[in-house]
Amino acid sequence: MGTVTVRTNFARSRNLRNGRAVLLLSCLLAFLVLRAEATTKKPPPQPVNINTATADELQQVPGIGPVTAEKIIHMRRAYGRFKRVDDLLSIKGIGRKRLEKMRKYLAVSGPPSAPASAPADKSTPSNEEKAPPAPPSYL
Fold it and tell me: How would residue 115 be classed by pLDDT, with cut points 50, 70 and 90?
């Protein structure tokens, strides 16, 4: 009878280990799926201006999280406006490969203030139409 008890206990032990392994793998798979969904961002509809964007606006760009957004804002405050999107390469953590993935969502200037199709206001003359100022009179 001792042999049967050992085999039964071994079988129970093996089933318990298999159950734990299945549970562990299920949890791992669920974690990976949820993480993949959380890291997938919907890109912004228009490029984000890196010279005026807030941290929340910068985080809309795939590849930019809270830490990188703060680094971009810190650099902008410390050194002034970015002249090119490539200026982001000077930020630690942004390399060429990462920048190329983000490039289509970034800009250094915003959209024009007036639509291109809007007619120009003719009530005020342009710089070309203005007469040059009269020289100062010293008499």
Answer: very low
> Are 91 and 35 a contacting pair, CB within 8 Å?
no
| Total Cβ atoms within 10 A of residue 43 | 14
Q: Which pTM value belongs to this model?
A: 0.52
Structural domain boundaries, residue 22 = 8-40
DSSP conformational letter for 80: -
Cα–Cα distance for residue pair 16/99, rounded to 1 Å? 49
Q: Cα dihedral sign for 113, 116, 117, 121?
A: positive
pLDDT tier, 70 (very low <50, low <70, confident <90, very high otherwise) = very high
Together in a domain, 57 and 92:
yes
Task: Looking at the structure, tell me whether residues 68 and 101 fall in a common domain.
Answer: yes
70 and 99 within one domain: yes
Which residue's structure tokens are 């120009």? 120
Report how far Cα 43 is from the mean position of its chain's Cα atoms: 8
| Same-domain status, 65 and 94 | yes
Domain presence at residue 93? yes
The per-residue pLDDT for range 73-90, each reduced to its tens digit, is 999 999 999 999 999 999
